[in-house]
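fyi for ur records
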Amino acid sequence: MDLFRAAQTGNLTPCENVFVRKDYRIRPLEQFDLPNMVKWHHAPHVRAAAFSEYETTLEKMQEWFHSITANKKIVYLIFEGNQIPLGVVNFVDIDRRHSRAQWGLYLGEENQPKATGTVLGYFGLEYGFRILGLRRIMAEMIVNNPKSISLHKRLGFTVEGRFRAHVVKDGNYLDVLTAAIFADDWRTIQRQKLGEMLFSDWNNERGNKTNC
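which gave:
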């Protein structure tokens, strides 16, 4: 069974379900992460970039968590640095037939070292392409969020379109950019380019590994 199918049927081994490199790792969301999820959801820097601005509670977050555990089209991941949860990557609308998904990501913890957001994106793309076996990962970015737009371009996404007046923030309708990256482009170009920039031992390790 390939890793993508295994991930969607819940048959991944503990090693296959976690992606590790040096002091960072990305792993599936667990129930004990939910207090952090609530805290991050209400953090001003996260809310400023979010498409929605609803309030939540731990009880509501627990209900949401139980609802997604049985949903084969959704994967939520926690990104850690030095064993401390720092942020989230999610894949939604996973389409197994066409091997594609929509993704989102954010750092919940502020004041992280420079390039931590890029490391988060790197780990998310590695998980999406190598562990979920996706062919195409898509993103949407509000035009008034230059940090998100710059991050996606740095990760290798190509802007493909624009939805005019697509979301409302603070009473104003804003455009949304759509972008995508393909597995072939990630594997042949962007993965090594970012790896050499982010990890000093990239050439020694000859790529990332999936570990427990």
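The chain has one domain: 3-198. thats all i got for now
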